[in-house]
Protein backbone atom coordinates (compact mmCIF):
# COMPACT_ATOMS: atom_id res chain seq x y z
CA UNK A 1 0.00 0.00 0.00
CA UNK A 2 2.64 2.45 -0.98
CA UNK A 3 0.09 4.80 -2.46
CA UNK A 4 -1.63 5.40 0.85
CA UNK A 5 -0.66 8.47 2.75
CA UNK A 6 0.36 8.14 6.34
CA UNK A 7 -0.04 10.22 9.41
CA UNK A 8 1.69 9.94 12.75
CA UNK A 9 0.36 7.12 14.84
CA UNK A 10 -0.24 9.45 17.76
CA UNK A 11 -3.41 10.61 16.11
CA UNK A 12 -4.47 7.04 15.71
CA UNK A 13 -3.66 6.20 19.29
CA UNK A 14 -5.86 9.05 20.41
CA UNK A 15 -8.63 7.91 18.15
CA UNK A 16 -8.33 4.37 19.45
CA UNK A 17 -8.50 5.70 22.95
CA UNK A 18 -11.50 7.83 22.17
CA UNK A 19 -13.23 4.79 20.77
CA UNK A 20 -13.70 3.44 24.22
CA UNK A 21 -13.55 6.55 26.36
CA UNK A 22 -15.60 9.28 24.76
CA UNK A 23 -18.21 7.04 23.30
CA UNK A 24 -19.30 5.00 26.17
CA UNK A 25 -18.98 7.74 28.67
CA UNK A 26 -18.24 6.61 32.09
CA UNK A 27 -14.90 4.88 32.01
CA UNK A 28 -14.80 4.44 35.78
CA UNK A 29 -17.95 2.45 35.74
CA UNK A 30 -16.64 0.05 33.15
CA UNK A 31 -13.22 -0.33 34.67
CA UNK A 32 -14.79 -1.25 37.98
CA UNK A 33 -16.62 -4.06 36.31
CA UNK A 34 -13.53 -5.10 34.46
CA UNK A 35 -11.23 -4.85 37.45
CA UNK A 36 -10.75 -8.56 37.92
CA UNK A 37 -10.76 -9.36 34.28
CA UNK A 38 -7.17 -9.26 33.20
CA UNK A 39 -7.62 -11.99 30.70
CA UNK A 40 -10.10 -11.18 28.06
CA UNK A 41 -12.16 -13.47 25.99
CA UNK A 42 -14.56 -12.36 23.38
CA UNK A 43 -17.24 -14.67 22.25
CA UNK A 44 -19.39 -12.22 20.47
CA UNK A 45 -20.58 -14.65 17.90
CA UNK A 46 -23.75 -12.82 17.23
CA UNK A 47 -22.09 -10.52 14.77
CA UNK A 48 -20.42 -13.49 13.13
CA UNK A 49 -23.73 -15.24 12.85
CA UNK A 50 -25.32 -12.19 11.32
CA UNK A 51 -22.51 -11.84 8.82
CA UNK A 52 -22.53 -15.48 7.88
CA UNK A 53 -26.23 -15.55 7.23
CA UNK A 54 -29.01 -17.77 8.55
CA UNK A 55 -27.06 -21.01 8.33
CA UNK A 56 -25.54 -20.48 11.75
CA UNK A 57 -28.54 -19.02 13.50
CA UNK A 58 -28.26 -21.46 16.40
CA UNK A 59 -25.36 -19.48 17.67
CA UNK A 60 -26.68 -16.44 19.61
CA UNK A 61 -24.72 -17.49 22.65
CA UNK A 62 -25.92 -16.91 26.17
CA UNK A 63 -22.46 -16.16 27.48
CA UNK A 64 -22.21 -13.14 25.24
CA UNK A 65 -25.51 -11.86 26.58
CA UNK A 66 -24.24 -11.89 30.13
CA UNK A 67 -20.95 -10.35 29.07
CA UNK A 68 -22.97 -7.66 27.38
CA UNK A 69 -24.71 -6.87 30.63
CA UNK A 70 -21.55 -6.50 32.63
CA UNK A 71 -19.74 -4.60 29.96
CA UNK A 72 -21.07 -3.28 26.71
CA UNK A 73 -17.90 -1.66 25.56
CA UNK A 74 -15.82 -4.63 24.49
CA UNK A 75 -18.34 -6.18 22.14
CA UNK A 76 -18.87 -2.80 20.54
CA UNK A 77 -15.19 -2.15 20.19
CA UNK A 78 -14.81 -5.60 18.78
CA UNK A 79 -17.57 -5.11 16.25
CA UNK A 80 -16.00 -1.85 15.13
CA UNK A 81 -12.79 -3.77 14.60
CA UNK A 82 -14.68 -6.45 12.76
CA UNK A 83 -15.97 -3.97 10.21
CA UNK A 84 -12.57 -2.41 9.77
CA UNK A 85 -10.93 -5.81 9.34
CA UNK A 86 -13.39 -6.88 6.72
CA UNK A 87 -12.88 -3.76 4.67
CA UNK A 88 -9.12 -3.77 4.99
CA UNK A 89 -8.96 -7.27 3.57
CA UNK A 90 -11.00 -6.17 0.59
CA UNK A 91 -8.36 -3.59 -0.18
CA UNK A 92 -5.30 -5.64 0.65
CA UNK A 93 -6.22 -8.72 -1.35
CA UNK A 94 -7.03 -6.78 -4.48
CA UNK A 95 -4.03 -8.05 -6.37
CA UNK A 96 -3.21 -11.07 -4.32
CA UNK A 97 -3.04 -14.56 -5.79
CA UNK A 98 -5.61 -17.10 -4.73
CA UNK A 99 -5.01 -18.58 -1.31
CA UNK A 100 -4.04 -22.23 -1.13
CA UNK A 101 -5.44 -23.20 2.22
CA UNK A 102 -6.35 -22.02 5.66
CA UNK A 103 -2.78 -21.71 6.84
CA UNK A 104 -2.02 -19.56 3.84
CA UNK A 105 -4.72 -17.13 4.86
CA UNK A 106 -3.56 -17.11 8.44
CA UNK A 107 -0.09 -16.27 7.20
CA UNK A 108 -1.52 -13.45 5.16
CA UNK A 109 -3.12 -11.99 8.26
CA UNK A 110 0.10 -12.39 10.24
CA UNK A 111 2.33 -10.83 7.66
CA UNK A 112 0.61 -8.50 5.22
CA UNK A 113 -2.28 -7.33 7.33
CA UNK A 114 -0.18 -6.92 10.44
CA UNK A 115 2.45 -5.00 8.53
CA UNK A 116 -0.19 -2.74 7.15
CA UNK A 117 -1.65 -2.12 10.59
CA UNK A 118 1.35 -2.07 12.85
CA UNK A 119 4.41 -1.89 10.62
CA UNK A 120 5.65 -5.26 11.74
CA UNK A 121 4.79 -8.90 11.42
CA UNK A 122 3.41 -11.21 14.03
CA UNK A 123 6.46 -12.72 15.71
CA UNK A 124 5.31 -16.31 15.90
CA UNK A 125 2.42 -18.23 14.45
CA UNK A 126 1.74 -21.62 15.94
CA UNK A 127 -0.99 -24.10 15.20
CA UNK A 128 -2.10 -27.50 16.42
CA UNK A 129 -3.35 -28.31 12.91
CA UNK A 130 -6.83 -28.79 14.31
CA UNK A 131 -8.14 -25.32 13.85
CA UNK A 132 -6.43 -23.51 16.67
CA UNK A 133 -3.88 -20.87 15.80
CA UNK A 134 -1.87 -18.81 18.21
CA UNK A 135 -0.35 -15.49 17.14
CA UNK A 136 2.26 -13.99 19.38
CA UNK A 137 3.30 -10.39 19.06
CA UNK A 138 6.15 -9.59 21.39
CA UNK A 139 5.97 -5.87 20.88
CA UNK A 140 2.38 -5.06 20.19
CA UNK A 141 2.04 -1.51 18.97
CA UNK A 142 -1.06 -0.49 20.90
CA UNK A 143 0.66 -1.58 24.08
CA UNK A 144 4.13 -0.33 23.23
CA UNK A 145 3.54 3.00 24.89
CA UNK A 146 2.46 1.55 28.17
CA UNK A 147 4.68 2.34 31.07
CA UNK A 148 6.34 -0.61 32.72
CA UNK A 149 5.88 1.21 35.99
CA UNK A 150 2.54 0.74 37.63
CA UNK A 151 1.79 -2.28 35.54
CA UNK A 152 -0.57 -3.62 38.15
CA UNK A 153 -2.54 -0.45 38.08
CA UNK A 154 -3.10 -0.30 34.37
CA UNK A 155 -3.02 -3.95 33.51
CA UNK A 156 -6.78 -4.35 33.71
CA UNK A 157 -7.19 -1.48 31.29
CA UNK A 158 -5.15 -3.14 28.60
CA UNK A 159 -8.19 -5.10 27.53
CA UNK A 160 -9.60 -1.94 26.05
CA UNK A 161 -6.70 -1.79 23.66
CA UNK A 162 -6.82 -5.35 22.45
CA UNK A 163 -10.55 -5.72 21.93
CA UNK A 164 -10.28 -3.68 18.76
CA UNK A 165 -7.42 -5.69 17.20
CA UNK A 166 -9.28 -8.88 18.09
CA UNK A 167 -12.17 -7.61 16.04
CA UNK A 168 -9.86 -6.74 13.18
CA UNK A 169 -8.49 -10.28 13.09
CA UNK A 170 -11.94 -11.79 13.22
CA UNK A 171 -13.23 -9.46 10.53
CA UNK A 172 -10.23 -10.10 8.31
CA UNK A 173 -10.53 -13.85 8.62
CA UNK A 174 -14.24 -13.78 8.00
CA UNK A 175 -13.64 -11.81 4.83
CA UNK A 176 -11.17 -14.53 3.87
CA UNK A 177 -13.85 -17.14 4.43
CA UNK A 178 -12.83 -18.42 7.84
CA UNK A 179 -15.32 -18.20 10.65
CA UNK A 180 -13.62 -18.12 14.02
CA UNK A 181 -13.53 -16.81 17.54
CA UNK A 182 -10.61 -14.70 18.60
CA UNK A 183 -9.46 -14.22 22.13
CA UNK A 184 -6.42 -12.41 23.36
CA UNK A 185 -4.39 -11.98 26.45
CA UNK A 186 -1.65 -9.66 27.44
CA UNK A 187 1.27 -11.62 28.80
CA UNK A 188 3.63 -8.88 29.79
CA UNK A 189 3.61 -5.15 29.26
CA UNK A 190 3.99 -5.27 25.51
CA UNK A 191 3.50 -8.90 24.61
CA UNK A 192 0.12 -9.90 23.33
CA UNK A 193 -1.09 -13.36 22.39
CA UNK A 194 -4.07 -13.92 20.13
CA UNK A 195 -5.75 -17.26 20.00
CA UNK A 196 -7.84 -17.98 16.96
CA UNK A 197 -10.19 -20.92 17.06
CA UNK A 198 -11.69 -21.79 13.72
CA UNK A 199 -15.31 -22.83 13.84
CA UNK A 200 -15.99 -26.01 11.95
CA UNK A 201 -19.54 -26.76 11.03
CA UNK B 1 16.07 0.63 27.87
CA UNK B 2 18.84 -1.52 26.41
CA UNK B 3 20.83 -0.53 23.35
CA UNK B 4 18.98 -2.86 21.03
CA UNK B 5 15.74 -2.06 22.78
CA UNK B 6 12.46 -0.80 21.55
CA UNK B 7 13.44 2.51 20.08
CA UNK B 8 13.40 1.68 16.34
CA UNK B 9 9.78 0.70 16.29
CA UNK B 10 8.67 3.69 18.25
CA UNK B 11 10.61 6.03 16.00
CA UNK B 12 8.86 4.73 12.98
CA UNK B 13 5.57 6.00 14.23
CA UNK B 14 3.47 6.21 11.17
CA UNK B 15 0.11 4.68 10.74
CA UNK B 16 -1.75 4.20 7.54
CA UNK B 17 -4.25 6.94 6.80
CA UNK B 18 -6.70 4.46 5.29
CA UNK B 19 -6.81 2.72 8.62
CA UNK B 20 -7.71 5.95 10.35
CA UNK B 21 -10.48 6.62 7.89
CA UNK B 22 -11.89 3.12 8.07
CA UNK B 23 -11.78 3.14 11.84
CA UNK B 24 -13.48 6.48 12.01
CA UNK B 25 -16.15 5.34 9.59
CA UNK B 26 -16.87 2.24 11.61
CA UNK B 27 -16.94 4.35 14.73
CA UNK B 28 -19.48 6.74 13.27
CA UNK B 29 -21.62 3.81 12.22
CA UNK B 30 -21.47 2.43 15.74
CA UNK B 31 -22.37 5.76 17.35
CA UNK B 32 -25.25 6.06 14.96
CA UNK B 33 -26.46 2.66 16.04
CA UNK B 34 -26.24 3.69 19.68
CA UNK B 35 -27.72 7.17 19.54
CA UNK B 36 -29.93 6.87 16.49
CA UNK B 37 -30.64 10.59 16.10
CA UNK B 38 -28.12 12.31 13.81
CA UNK B 39 -28.19 15.41 16.03
CA UNK B 40 -27.02 13.38 19.00
CA UNK B 41 -24.36 11.76 16.89
CA UNK B 42 -23.06 15.17 15.84
CA UNK B 43 -22.76 16.13 19.47
CA UNK B 44 -20.81 12.98 20.25
CA UNK B 45 -18.49 13.45 17.30
CA UNK B 46 -17.82 17.02 18.36
CA UNK B 47 -16.96 15.85 21.85
CA UNK B 48 -14.76 13.11 20.52
CA UNK B 49 -12.93 15.53 18.27
CA UNK B 50 -12.54 17.97 21.11
CA UNK B 51 -10.90 15.35 23.29
CA UNK B 52 -8.53 14.44 20.50
CA UNK B 53 -7.68 18.06 19.73
CA UNK B 54 -6.93 18.89 23.34
CA UNK B 55 -4.19 16.28 23.40
CA UNK B 56 -3.12 16.54 19.82
CA UNK B 57 -2.05 20.15 20.11
CA UNK B 58 0.65 19.22 22.61
CA UNK B 59 2.06 16.63 20.28
CA UNK B 60 1.94 19.08 17.41
CA UNK B 61 3.79 21.78 19.30
CA UNK B 62 6.33 19.27 20.54
CA UNK B 63 7.11 18.25 16.96
CA UNK B 64 7.30 21.69 15.48
CA UNK B 65 9.36 24.59 16.54
CA UNK B 66 6.55 27.09 16.55
CA UNK B 67 6.87 30.69 17.58
CA UNK B 68 3.96 32.48 19.14
CA UNK B 69 1.19 33.37 16.70
CA UNK B 70 0.83 37.13 16.48
CA UNK B 71 -2.40 37.30 14.56
CA UNK B 72 -5.19 35.04 13.41
CA UNK B 73 -3.64 34.56 9.98
CA UNK B 74 -0.66 32.85 11.52
CA UNK B 75 -3.00 30.71 13.54
CA UNK B 76 -4.71 29.67 10.34
CA UNK B 77 -1.35 28.69 8.89
CA UNK B 78 -0.62 26.52 11.90
CA UNK B 79 -3.94 24.78 11.67
CA UNK B 80 -3.25 24.13 8.01
CA UNK B 81 0.17 22.78 8.88
CA UNK B 82 -1.32 20.52 11.55
CA UNK B 83 -3.68 19.00 9.02
CA UNK B 84 -0.81 18.24 6.71
CA UNK B 85 1.11 16.70 9.56
CA UNK B 86 -1.65 14.48 10.86
CA UNK B 87 -3.80 13.65 7.90
CA UNK B 88 -1.39 14.15 5.05
CA UNK B 89 -3.85 16.41 3.29
CA UNK B 90 -3.34 20.10 3.29
CA UNK B 91 -6.44 22.26 3.11
CA UNK B 92 -6.45 25.63 1.43
CA UNK B 93 -6.97 28.64 3.66
CA UNK B 94 -9.23 31.21 2.16
CA UNK B 95 -12.44 33.23 2.21
CA UNK B 96 -11.13 35.63 4.80
CA UNK B 97 -13.69 37.95 6.25
CA UNK B 98 -12.69 41.62 5.73
CA UNK B 99 -12.24 42.01 9.46
CA UNK B 100 -9.73 39.17 9.48
CA UNK B 101 -11.43 37.21 12.20
CA UNK B 102 -13.01 34.52 10.12
CA UNK B 103 -11.61 32.13 7.53
CA UNK B 104 -12.30 28.86 5.79
CA UNK B 105 -10.37 25.65 5.46
CA UNK B 106 -11.19 24.18 2.08
CA UNK B 107 -10.51 20.77 0.62
CA UNK B 108 -11.45 20.81 -3.05
CA UNK B 109 -13.31 17.78 -4.32
CA UNK B 110 -12.58 15.66 -1.32
CA UNK B 111 -13.24 15.11 2.31
CA UNK B 112 -10.05 14.37 4.23
CA UNK B 113 -11.61 11.61 6.28
CA UNK B 114 -14.43 10.51 4.02
CA UNK B 115 -12.80 8.54 1.23
CA UNK B 116 -14.87 5.43 1.65
CA UNK B 117 -18.12 7.01 2.65
CA UNK B 118 -21.47 7.08 0.97
CA UNK B 119 -24.27 8.99 2.58
CA UNK B 120 -27.76 7.56 2.71
CA UNK B 121 -30.45 10.15 2.06
CA UNK B 122 -32.11 9.85 5.44
CA UNK B 123 -28.94 10.93 7.23
CA UNK B 124 -28.34 14.26 5.57
CA UNK B 125 -28.30 16.04 8.90
CA UNK B 126 -25.39 13.93 10.08
CA UNK B 127 -22.19 15.95 10.05
CA UNK B 128 -19.47 13.50 9.22
CA UNK B 129 -16.71 16.09 9.47
CA UNK B 130 -17.84 17.25 12.88
CA UNK B 131 -14.86 15.51 14.45
CA UNK B 132 -12.52 17.86 12.59
CA UNK B 133 -14.38 20.86 13.98
CA UNK B 134 -14.11 19.45 17.46
CA UNK B 135 -10.42 18.76 17.05
CA UNK B 136 -9.67 22.29 15.84
CA UNK B 137 -11.75 23.80 18.58
CA UNK B 138 -10.13 21.67 21.26
CA UNK B 139 -6.65 22.30 19.95
CA UNK B 140 -7.07 26.07 19.71
CA UNK B 141 -8.70 26.24 23.09
CA UNK B 142 -5.53 24.82 24.59
CA UNK B 143 -3.61 27.76 23.16
CA UNK B 144 -6.09 30.28 24.53
CA UNK B 145 -8.05 30.88 21.38
CA UNK B 146 -11.78 30.46 21.43
CA UNK B 147 -13.31 29.75 18.03
CA UNK B 148 -16.67 28.82 16.63
CA UNK B 149 -16.69 26.40 13.70
CA UNK B 150 -19.38 25.56 11.22
CA UNK B 151 -19.39 23.22 8.28
CA UNK B 152 -20.13 25.43 5.31
CA UNK B 153 -19.80 22.82 2.61
CA UNK B 154 -19.69 19.06 2.76
CA UNK B 155 -18.29 17.13 -0.15
CA UNK B 156 -20.05 13.96 0.94
CA UNK B 157 -23.40 15.68 0.57
CA UNK B 158 -22.72 16.66 -3.02
CA UNK B 159 -20.94 19.99 -2.60
CA UNK B 160 -17.88 20.83 -4.66
CA UNK B 161 -15.62 20.90 -1.65
CA UNK B 162 -15.46 20.42 2.07
CA UNK B 163 -15.31 23.77 3.77
CA UNK B 164 -14.97 24.47 7.47
CA UNK B 165 -15.71 28.02 8.54
CA UNK B 166 -13.72 29.12 11.55
CA UNK B 167 -14.62 32.29 13.43
CA UNK B 168 -12.49 33.87 16.10
CA UNK B 169 -14.53 34.49 19.24
CA UNK B 170 -12.14 35.73 21.87
CA UNK B 171 -8.85 35.19 23.54
CA UNK B 172 -9.14 33.15 26.66
CA UNK B 173 -7.30 34.90 29.45
CA UNK B 174 -8.37 33.08 32.55
CA UNK B 175 -6.78 29.77 31.70
CA UNK B 176 -3.22 31.03 32.11
CA UNK B 177 -1.57 29.88 35.31
CA UNK B 178 -0.17 32.62 37.52
CA UNK B 179 3.35 33.64 36.59
CA UNK B 180 3.07 32.54 33.00
CA UNK B 181 3.21 34.95 30.10
TrEMBL record, chain A:
It comes from Hypsibius exemplaris (Freshwater tardigrade). CDD domains: TRAPPC6A_Trs33 (cd14944). Belongs to the TRAPP small subunits family. BET3 subfamily. Pfam families: TRAPP. It comes from the Eukaryota. The lineage of its organism: Eukaryota, Metazoa, Ecdysozoa, Tardigrada, Eutardigrada. One of its GO terms (biological process) is endoplasmic reticulum to Golgi vesicle-mediated transport. GO terms for cellular component: cis-Golgi network; trans-Golgi network; TRAPP complex. It is found in: Golgi apparatus, cis-Golgi network. Its main location: Golgi. This is Trafficking protein particle complex subunit 6B.
TrEMBL record, chain B:
This is Trafficking protein particle complex subunit. Keywords: Endoplasmic reticulum, ER-Golgi transport, Golgi apparatus, Transport. The keyword Endoplasmic reticulum applies. Signal peptide: none annotated. Its main location: endoplasmic reticulum. May play a role in vesicular transport from endoplasmic reticulum to Golgi. It comes from the Eukaryota. Homodimer. Belongs to the TRAPP small subunits family. BET3 subfamily. PANTHER family: TRAFFICKING PROTEIN PARTICLE COMPLEX SUBUNIT 3 (PTHR13048). The keyword Endoplasmic reticulum applies. It is found in: Endoplasmic reticulum; Golgi apparatus, cis-Golgi network. GO terms for cellular component: endoplasmic reticulum; Golgi apparatus; TRAPP complex. InterPro entries: Bet3, NO_sig/Golgi_transp_ligand-bd, TRAPP_component. It comes from Hypsibius exemplaris (Freshwater tardigrade). GO terms for biological process: Golgi vesicle transport; macroautophagy.
